[in-house]
Amino acid sequence: ETVKVITTCDADKDILGFKIESKLIPLKRLSIFIEFPYASLEYFSNGSDYTKPNLHQTTLSRVSRNSVIFNRKLDSTTYQVACKWTGNGTIEKQATHRFILHPAMTTSNINTVEYVFAFSPSKISTSLPCFAAIKNSSIKHWAAFWNSGGAIDLSGSKDPRWFELERRIVLSEYQMAINAAGNYPPQETGLVSNSWYGRFHYEMYWWHAAHYSLWDRQPLLNNSLHVYADNLTSSIQRAKLQGYKGARWPKCTGPDGREWPYITHAYLIWQQPHPLFFAELDYRAHPTLKTLKKWAKIVDMTADFMASYPYFDKSRNEYVLGPPIKTVPENNDALTTENPAFELAYWRVGLRIAQQWRERLKLGVKPEWAEVLNKLAPIPVEDSLYVQWENIDNMWTKFNFEHPAMTGIYGMLPGDGVNKRIMNKTFQKVLDVWKFDTGWGWDFPMMAMCAARLDRPIDAVDMLLHPSKKFNFDVHGLVGGGNPYPYFPANGGLLYAVAMMTAGWDGDNGVQEPGWPKDGSWVVKWEDLKKAL
Predict the structure, then answer these.
(1) pTM to 2 decimals?
(2) How many angstroms separate the CA atoms of 525 and 532, rounded?
(3) At what angle do helices 289-308 and 341-360 cross, to 10 degrees?
(4) What CA–CA distances, in Å, run from 527 to 414, 508, 513?
(5) What is d(CA 335, CA 323) in angstroms, rounded to the nearest whole number?
(6) Integer Cα distance of 309 and 372 in angstroms
(7) Residues 6+ apart with CB under 8 A from 367
(8) Within 10 Å of residue 204's Cβ, how many Cβ atoms?
(9) Separation between Cα atoms, residue 392 and residue 401, nearest integer Å
(10) Tell me, what's the pLDDT at 126?
C-alpha cells in the first residue's frame, strides 16, 4: 500500500512537521517510531550510536491527550523533544529509548495523521504549531530566499552541459543555506553527518562562507562571523604563549575556541589571513565607519601576528615562512619545509588589506607590517613553474596529488606577487599531470578561478564540470568521493567561482562576464552578483 509522507521544517525554530497519508492508518497497520541514540565518537559517522542504552536517559512526560515531552540527558547535555499529533493516537514504550506512536482515525480524514516534533536545549513551554503553520513558515522563508540575493540563468547557452552546471549552482545555494549558514561555521559535512567530532576548521571557513558576500547574502555570512570576535582573546593568548605578537587563530575548534591538539594544527597557518579577507568582504558590502571599527582590533591583531611570524634570514635579506610549517595540502615534512607558495601569496594579500584598513581609519601604515611585506620571500619558482614550496623534491611526479594550492594564488587570491606568464604555464602543467582523484572538492573551483583570471574561460567552465569522483554532485547536490561525506566546501567553492566568473574581480578591465567563453556557447543572464577581490 502507498504511504505518502510530507516533511517540512519551521523557518525559525527547530521544529519538524510530518503529514502521513495512507489507507493503512484506519486499518491500524501503520505506526511510526522515534528512537534516541547516544552520541557517536566514530570518525565521519552520522553522529548516532544506538548500541549504548545505559549511557544516556530518556523519560516520557505526557502533556495532554495527544502530546508528550521526551526529556533527554547525555552526559552533561540535556534537551527536550516535544511531540504532538492529530486524532486519538497513542504512544507506548518499546525499549529504553524507543517509542511507538500509533495513529488513529481523525474526524476530518480517516487516512491522514500529522505529527509535530520540537527540539530545544531548554524547557519547551509554548504550544507547538500545527503542520500547516510549519509548512506555511517554510514556504514564506524559501520564497524570500529565492527572491533575494544573486541569481544566474544559463538556459540560453548552446553548450549542452548548461543544465548540469545550473543544477549544481541552484542545489549548492540550497545546500549551503541549510548546512552552512548557522550561528557557527559548519563542519565540513554540515548537518548531514559528523566529521572531526563536530568541530569546524578555521581554514575551511572561507570555502564554506565567502560566497555569501558575492551572492549578495551577507546576512547569512554575518550569522557566524562573530567567531573572530569571540575567539580573539584566546587567539592573542595563543600567540603570546608561542612568542608571537597579535592573534594566532586556531586550526580546528568548536564554539568555545579551544584548539583541538594535533600536530598538523600546530603547524598550519593559511587560516591566519582569512579574517582580513572577510573584513574586506564585509566592508565592500557595508562601506561604513561602523564596519571599520567592528573589525579594527581583529585586523590589527591578525596582521601583528602575520608580521611577527616570518623569520628574517639575514643571508637572503628576506623574511621566510617556516620551518616548521604545514602547507595547504598537508603532505609536506613540516620540519624541513620553507616558503610555501600559497601562504606567501596570502601573507602579501593579508598585510596589504591590513594596511588599507588603517589608512581608511586615518591611522597611517604600520612600519613593521610594511617591512615584512616589502621583504617577504618571493613565491617559489622552479623551471619557470610555480611549485608548492621552496626546494621541493620531484614536484610534478612525487607531489602531484592532494590540493594544487599554487593555483590558488591567482584565482582565490588576487595574485599579489604573481607573474601571470609563469602562472599560465603552471596551470597548464597542473592540467597535464595532476592526480585529481586524490584531491578534494574545492580544488576544482580553485582551478576554475585561476583559469578565469588567466583568460582561459573554457578551462574555467570545464573545471566546474570536471568528471572526477571527488566532484560528483549527486541528485541532491551533495559532493562525495570519500570521507568526509558530504563535502560542502565543494559547494561553497563552486558558488564563489561562478559569481567571480560572472560579476568579475578587481582588475578585470571591465570585461563583461570575464570568466565565461565568448564564442556564443555560453549565454549568461544574471543579477545582484558582486565582484571578487
Answers:
(1) 0.96
(2) 18
(3) 140
(4) 23, 18, 12
(5) 5
(6) 10
(7) none
(8) 23
(9) 14
(10) 75
Residue 398 corresponds to which cell in the numbers above? 612525487
pLDDT at 259: 92
What type of residue sits at position 217?
R
Q: Name the nearest CA neighbour of 406 among 421, 418, 393.
A: 418
Q: Please, is 107 exposed, middle or buried when counting C-beta atoms within 10 Å of its C-beta (0-12, 13-18, 19+)?
A: exposed
- Measured CA to CA, the distance from residue 340 to residue 302 in angstroms comes to 19
Residue 149 in grid coordinates:
540575493
Taking only the tens place, the pLDDT of each residue in 405-447 is 999 999 999 999 999 999 999 999 999 999 999 999 999 999 9
In 3D, which of 240, 206, 360 has the Cα closest to residue 294? 360
Whether the per-residue pLDDT at 107 is higher than 70: the answer is no
Average pLDDT over residues 337-346: 98
- CA nearest to 445, candidates 474, 420, 479, 417: 479
The x, y and z cell numbers of residue 344, run together, are 606567501
Q: What are the residues facing 194 on neighbouring strands?
A: 45
Cis upstream peptide for 250 (omega within 30°): no
**CA dist 75 → 38, 41, 42, 72, 112 (Å):** 9, 14, 17, 10, 38
Long-range contacts of 141-145 (CB under 8 A, 24+ apart): 141/11, 141/12, 145/177
Q: What is the pLDDT of residue 237?
A: 97
And the C-alpha cell for 10? 519551521
Amino acid present at 78 = T
Confidence of residue 289 (pLDDT cuts 50, 70, 90): very high
The three grid cell numbers given for residue 233, joined into one nine-digit string: 582573546
